[in-house]
Design a protein that fits this description.
Elements lengths: L17 H10 L24 H17 L1 H21 L17 E3 L8 H13 L5 E3 L2 E4 L7 H8 L1
Antiparallel strand pairs: 1-3, 2-3
Length: 161
């Protein structure tokens, strides 16, 4: 009761009711009022839990990444960043982020011919990228490109040309 508003935690539940309340939380079922009534004077309870389907998808994604091995993912991203930096340099596009292999990351930020302080310009840029099926974000006065290990070179070429 010292919390404002007071909350219901598992510490407040009888041991035999924990599973019922947990199952309601993760299934999205109605809150089991008879098993865990609200504190006096409280009118509602918003249960929040994560879907077991999302947990399963997350677990499968992690397994996939672990099966690929992190070294191969890192190597692939480095190849893509090498390709991107080379193509950007050849096209005369200014790169704002570090390009040296020791200083850079998997993110390349470039200067774009848009005024990124103007929302209309950002919208125009986002539309152009969306049509090309490219996800990139305006950052620090430039456009942030972050290839992932499954990125093909053709979408990166469409950013440049």
């Amino acid at each position: 009761d010292r919390l404002h508003p007071p909350t219901l935690t598992y510490a407040n539940l009888p041991k035999e009711e924990e599973e019922t309340v947990w199952n309601a939380l993760i299934s999205g079922a109605d809150y089991p009022m008879k098993h865990a009534p609200l504190a006096d004077g409280r009118k509602r309870f918003e249960a929040q839990g994560l879907s077991p389907v999302l947990f399963k998808g997350f677990a499968i994604s992690l397994r996939y990444l672990l099966d690929l091995e992190m070294d191969s993912i890192e190597s692939r991203i480095a190849e893509l960043v090498d390709y991107l930096i080379l193509a950007l340099n050849q096209a005369g596009i200014a790169i704002l982020s570090p390009t040296g292999s020791k200083e850079r990351s998997g993110i390349v930020t470039v200067r774009v011919p848009f005024d990124l302080t103007q929302s209309e310009e950002i919208k125009a840029l986002e539309e152009k990228l969306h049509k090309a099926r490219i996800i990139a974000l305006p950052r620090s006065g430039g456009l942030r490109l972050a290839p992932v290990s499954v990125t093909a070179c053709s979408p990166m070429r469409s950013v440049i040309f």
